[in-house]
Amino acid sequence: MPCAILRPHPLTSAQLSNMAKKKTAPKNAFYAQSGGVSAVINASAAGVIETAKKHPRQIGRLYAGRHGIIGALTEDLIDVYKESPALLKGLKHTPAGAFGSARFKLKGLEQNKAEYERLIEVFKAHDIGYFFYNGGNDSMDTALKVSQIGESMGYPITCVGVPKTVDNDLPHTDCCPGFGSVAKYIAVSTREAALDVASMARTSTKVFVLEVMGRHAGWIAAAGGLAGRKAGDPPHIILFPEVPFEKDKFLGKVKQCVTDYGFCVIVVSEGSATPDGKFLADAGTTDAFGHTQLGGVGPLVANMVREAHGYKYHWAVADYLQRAARHIASKVDVDQAYAVGKAAVELAVKGVNAVMPTIVRKASKPYKWTIGHVPLAEVANKEKKLPPEYITADGFGITEACRRYLEPLIGGEAYPPYKDGLPDYVRIKGVGVKRKLKTDFKA
Amino acid sequence: MPCAILRPHPLTSAQLSNMAKKKTAPKNAFYAQSGGVSAVINASAAGVIETAKKHPRQIGRLYAGRHGIIGALTEDLIDVYKESPALLKGLKHTPAGAFGSARFKLKGLEQNKAEYERLIEVFKAHDIGYFFYNGGNDSMDTALKVSQIGESMGYPITCVGVPKTVDNDLPHTDCCPGFGSVAKYIAVSTREAALDVASMARTSTKVFVLEVMGRHAGWIAAAGGLAGRKAGDPPHIILFPEVPFEKDKFLGKVKQCVTDYGFCVIVVSEGSATPDGKFLADAGTTDAFGHTQLGGVGPLVANMVREAHGYKYHWAVADYLQRAARHIASKVDVDQAYAVGKAAVELAVKGVNAVMPTIVRKASKPYKWTIGHVPLAEVANKEKKLPPEYITADGFGITEACRRYLEPLIGGEAYPPYKDGLPDYVRIKGVGVKRKLKTDFKA
């Protein structure tokens, strides 16, 4: 890893003068939020912004892309330093993407060189020498490519990824900022809904299904398992994307739970799939009116139970509520989100290029972590699934090893301030940077 | 209203002796939770229990029905005073029905006298002279009937209702305990999800639909309106049960919002209905496989938008999550829930029969309230809907008058304690009272 080393031997005055010149010519930085947002991505933004401000000799201005990378392509840049101190403070407790995010994956260099060239053109026009990209697997791939194309076009740019994904599927990091808060929301909600069902089951609802996010990895579903503490505690069944769904086995387990406990609480991942790899939610295609399947996998599974056993059921689909739930964010998650933003800037100003800060677990109980980093090439487009040893033998629960891994990540509460009974979330002014290019780009 | 009056004139020694005897013969009390539970119904239980303990000369033991009124009918009583002090303290911050609730409506006296007679039989066997029934409209009707049948059977029993319903539809009270916390949850969730959609709308989801409870009254849906502060703020559309759903008008408004703001956030009440009074959720009946309609009204409305305009959408159904969300309970709601429990016992020991404590608003800003009471006959089976002056002229929003009414009810946070990242909710020991009857009852 390259880093600034203080040379002990004397320098010539010409060398010293050159270094001083270098120091007086800071480059601007660009920051963008990418992909699905989270409860703490703005805490990462706060980490980037506050740390950039501490390095004025390397970083001149900090620009954010309005709606992520789209803002760079269309030269729609937000002058971050024009935001008020109150806004910058408020970012730490405000969910979703304050600067706007985008679902926009830059294609391979060969297929769409024009997009990358456009990025470099905009960066050049605004003297941008640092690129901070706050996202998941896809975004790390983009950051890597931007670094490569800049190099090949003779405009080197220091690219550092800032990890973010509620899916928790980035490799080489203990966890991903954004996940801890979703995990806490799902664990809390599962515990609360389970108490509700338990108190009603004698005469009313016997089966409750909660659908959670995680199309390819079952980390969020697994977090539902934290709601219970001992055998028999709800949730009684978790359906993971990693475990092929077997209808009969599932229905048998539901019946067993209702018999044994009087009710059954089920957490189902949106990515649950049949043994032949088809998403459960895709099983039914159109209804009697030719409408596209309305329900998600939650109502589908609930209905399956009703048809087989006739139990009264309820289902909930948390959808965006889970990933936006800053009101119940994990303090650990907020701290880590801020820390990776801060570390990204610290790495960049040291000249470390094409890397992503990671979270390194030092101990689980009490949880101790520190920040490391990994080359972007090691994380780009890779997915970390739930390992088999985190899933119980019957495929329906989490093991103690999984609990040991997950529990620290939901640790601590980081409540936002309230006004008139509601969280006092902030909004950016979003002052634009004057355009310098005459060319347009249709994103 | 009958109440204890201190007589200023001297009493004979026989009279004094009689009074002393009366004082040394306390009656036991019965408490039951009824209907759908809430985040704060246990706070009402705490109010009942702690206050009952302060009146040992009138109230001997306090028994709770296991699973509500079912526990009385089947002589399955919980000896509440055998619970630990920690449990009793924990009730104030534990959601759902700690003693078990029931969806079990006693029919009219004529139709099913046996059930009422059985109740009195059990009450007599356990020397129960006080009946505290914690529920909504139906439950107030039951409490009234128990009072009447006791009287007619020569076993007078003091019956006091303890109001509880997330639907907020009881008349003669400023609001219903349980509602403020659901309202806060829905307002917070709407604000959070709206921030999520706003940050993604440029390239992804343009329409977000949140389905909320409230089959007959739009109070919960209206609470979603608190998420916005000024014109144009989300939610852009609220669909109330009180406003007949007009598809074309609705779709036109959605398009207008996406054009004006870039996205559209919709809160829809499960009770939304067509002009001919049919629930929207009942519109589609079966799908291609003969399955019963899986989705609720949320996915249905979202799909309607997609079919008409092609916008990418997401939808969430909060279901039990909303009414069990003690983690984000309104402090005002918790305080009021406790206060009505306390008042119920205070009224009962004064001999006030067949009433329900109410919440009386003294001022809105700052919110000032006190406790009153109303005869059960005035609330039994009556429903308070959202008044027309609380709904904007276009039928899609809440007025300032509505905001003034709602805002105080979500005031303050009353966070539960946490352990290992999760709320530390309590569970009862639930020690049963020895049965005295030889007869069984099949509920």
Topology:
The structure is a homodimer of 443-residue chains.
Chain A: H1 13-23, E1 27-33, H2 41-53, E2 59-65, H3 69-73, E3 77-79, H4 85-90, H5 113-125, E4 128-135, H6 137-152, E5 158-163, H7 179-200, E6 207-212, H8 219-224, E7 237-239, H9 247-261, E8 264-269, H10 297-309, E9 313-317, H11 320-324, H12 331-349, E10 355-364, E11 367-375, H13 376-379, H14 400-406, E12 418-419, E13 422-423
Parallel strand pairs in A: 1-2, 1-4, 4-5, 6-8, 6-9, 7-8
Antiparallel strand pairs in A: 2-3, 10-11, 12-13
Quick rundown:
The structure is a homodimer of 443-residue chains. Chain A is of the alpha/beta class.
Comma- or semicolon-separated keywords:
homodimer; about 450 residues; alpha/beta; Rossmann fold; five-stranded mixed β-sheet; about 35% helix; disordered N terminus
